[in-house]
Amino acid sequence: MAYPPPLPAAGLPASDPAALLAAVLKANAHTEHPRLRQILDGLIRHLHAFALELDLTPAELDLGLDFLVRIGQASGPKKHEGILLADILGLATLVQLRGARHALAAGGTEPALVGPFWRANQPLRRHGECISSDDTPGPRLTVTGQVRSLDGTPIAGAWVETWQASPKGLYENQDPEQRHMNLRGRFETDREGRFSFVSVRPAGYPVPVDGPCGELLAAQGRHSMRPAHLHFLVVAPGHKVLATQFFDAEDPHALDDVVFGAVGSLLRRFEPDGAGGFTLDVELRLEPGETHIPHCPLP
Ligand code: BEZ
Ligand code: FE
To answer: Using one digit for the tens of pLDDT, what is the confidence trace for 113-129?
Structure first.
């Protein structure tokens, strides 16, 4: 063979985006896992179309990649900037609502994003137990609920995880004044699928803005507030996991949630209990299916 070997007649056509896209898709064609191949194909096609449509410059790409690097650097066991990014772009809400579309058509409970504040090993509590420590000031909130399957059958033995911010708008892990696992708990439903607990009325709060997502919100001229809410994540055998939230309809941001989670049927009035506190009654309707427990963001 002659040395040096002859160069190929031509490389990729220099100014043919379609040929470049075809080459990148071809490089992906051997991805073994079929769904991963499909997802990567879609991502590649959309990224190329995006760059072309916007005439993205190298400087802009550099800035965007630096933003992604900083999202990673700002994330760790105690903070999830990546989750926050998916949330403030509406992607988490879109994916959840889309995944629940069949259940929603059949009367299932609307889902809402899990967010970055669910903790592993939340304490198992008794029916009716108070989840707020005595030193948490704020109006009492009594929560009652029932877990049912789509056809209305009560689900006994379901696990109901709940977590909420304090009346100051802080989760326990953000607030040195709160006790470990305050305003968090896990309940097991009784024979009628019911659970209940006593808590305090939560306040709305800003999502964390001390990282790159905060910069993004500022650049977009957006506020950072979530309306007051309680989170639920329900796990029952033979059913899809339901992650949802119920929102205080009287909150000033009830119709303007920074992460777009406060969808229609999840807005609720916290009813006065006649003794200075409030009540909230919820029904959680789960779709039969495979139980996939989402990744828990906090230890
Ligand atoms: C939350 O509700 O806990 C939450 C959701 C998205 C971003 C930040 C917080
Ligand atoms: Fe929250």
So the answer is: 999 999 999 999 999 99
Longest dimension (CA), the chain: 95
The answer as to whether 254 is a domain residue is yes
3-state SS class at 157: coil
Q: What ligand 1 atom has the least distance to the C-alpha of 205?
A: 9
Cβ count near 8 (within 10 Å):
6
Tell me the best of 84, 226, 257 to mutate to test the pocket of ligand 1, counting ligand atoms within 8 Å of each CB and taking the most: 226
The CA 192 to ligand 2 mean position distance, Å, reads: 28
Query: Is 53 a member of any domain?
Result: no
Residue 20 CB partners (closer than 8 Å, separation 6+): 12, 48
Report the predicted TM-score, pTM, of the whole model to 2 decimal places.
0.92
CA atoms within 13 A on the CB side of 60: 7
Q: Which two tokens stand for residue 263?
A: 């969808």
Mean pLDDT of all residues in the chain? 95
Nearest CA to ligand 1 atom 2: 115
CATH number at residue 144: 2.60.130.10
In a domain, 60, yes or no: no
With a 6 A CB cut-off, is 117 part of the ligand 1 pocket?
yes
What's the rounded Cα separation, in Å, for the pair 153 and 128?
A: 22
Structural domain span for residue 266? 81-286
In a domain, 153, yes or no: yes
Query: What is the number of domains present in the chain?
Result: 1
| CA 6 – CA 259 distance, rounded (Å) | 57
| Atom of ligand 1 lying closest to residue 229 CA | 2
